[in-house]
Design goal:
The chain is an alpha/beta fold. It has one helix and seven strands.
Length: about 90
């Protein structure tokens, strides 16, 4: 079975769900950003989740992406990503 692949990014993307991961004194956490621009007119403002444990944020992003039919990109400046979640890849342009 093929592994899931996610594009790493340095900032929130206007056309995809962005999973923002970070590491702080409390451990690894994440938030999910659904930009209004990607909602097909359903939202007037960007929607940002509360900080969640990193794995919960990842799972939430997957559920949301499946519901709204959008891609997920990952902003992970602190190296929180776990390989069992899938592969981070840089597409060739």
């Amino acid at each position: 079975m093929a592994r899931n692949r996610f594009e790493p990014v340095n900032e929130i993307q206007p056309d995809a769900i962005t999973l923002v991961l970070k590491r702080d004194n409390d451990g690894a956490s994440g938030s999910i950003v659904l930009p209004a621009a990607a909602s097909g007119g359903r939202l007037t403002t960007d929607q940002v989740s509360a900080q969640l444990p990193a794995q919960d944020a990842f799972r939430g992003a997957i559920r949301l992406a499946n519901d709204v039919k959008l891609a997920i990109v990952v902003c992970d400046p602190d190296g929180v990503w776990k390989s069992e979640w899938g592969d981070l890849y840089q597409p060739i342009e």
